[in-house]
Predict the 3D structure of the following.
Amino acid sequence: MKQMLSNRHQIIVTPESRKFQVALNPNRANMAVIKVLIVIEVRLMGNIFAAALEDETDVSVAGCASTMEEALQIVREKEIDVVLISVKLPNQGALELSRAIMDITPSTKVLALGLSDEKEDVLRYLEAGAAGYILQDSSMNELIETLRLTKRGEAQVSTKVAGAILERLASLSRVFARVENTIAEDARLTPRELEVLEFIGEGLTNQEIAERLFVEVGTVKNHVHSILEKLNVSNRQEAATYLAFIKK
């Protein structure tokens, strides 16, 4: 993190300086800004990062947090575009926080701050929901550019990480194919049951399905009962989740 600040001017953080951020950046009111939450285990470092980012006319620091609980409270209360999370948070807190933010507000982007360039480390955070990462030896200029890319829905990765992502996607594809075949073999749904399951996935009631198929409602109920039994699920919603895996 020291390297990130090495190419910036000296920063003095005072409570009074925060009050004048709008006056220092008068163009901010007329442009779309990136609302950033900074989560770093050392509060002083968070304040230093905040002061550096506030120099940018298109970046606004919505808050600083040093714990997972504090960060989640800010996420719930404010509209955040990007959360900058230090990977040094104790007890794997950065991974847990990334997943929690994705559950609360999927539109908010997460950036993992301070990663090594080991592909396994990067993949762990991407799989936890991070939209990108900033290496531990990155500069502040690189951090700011990554923020802008992330806000636009873009990502910048090394060739090594890109290769690892492709490998993981190929592996997941093989796993899903095996699951799909297994479910299809175990379920043994009839063509009519598959048709009824499709309608269940569309949210249709038994009456509506009966009208589509020109059959009695009792017949549809029998099909639904058989589907639930074969898939070993307890309700229609759970049955509908199997649609993605069952070959038709």
Summary: The two ends are 53 Å apart (CA to CA). Residues 5-24 have pLDDT under 50 and may be disordered.
